[in-house]
Structure prediction request, 174 residues.
Amino acid sequence: MLARDAGQNIVLWAFTVLSGLLVLTMLFLVMGRWADRKVALAFDATGMWWLHGDRSAFVAWDTLAAVGIYCVTNRAGRAVDRTLELCPRGEIDPDDPLLWRMIREAEPRSAGHPRLRYRIELDGVPHAEEVCRRWVPPGLWFGRELQLPGYEGSPDYAGHDRRVRERERRPNAA
Prediction:
């Protein structure tokens, strides 16, 4: 009888631990979404605004060579908008205080353009293509392009941290 009780206790303990881990995981996911609740994209005739809480960043249309939306195919076979691609005419600051997490290295759309671009996730952005068609100048808009899953990439965390540390070490760093 004691062996059976010990076995039941182990099962109960394992269930409790796994349930606790599940709750913690869900809490972290909710906290991540909660932190992004004050993030918004805004467009006007001069460019795109990225608003995050009380801070904002602006990318002017006249600094860009191309703008479009990359999409992927979902399980149902429909193209789903994933990212807004802002391809600059010239170099961009890879350590912009607000935008650096959105910078990706990718093949330039045209010869002579830099490899770095802004790649902004469109999760939860309704009617992204309609908004872009309305506000992005026609000469910049390349439309929607289908991409392979996994194209999104990730921010250059190691490079960013290294550059920031180097700047902090330099006297009179800007």
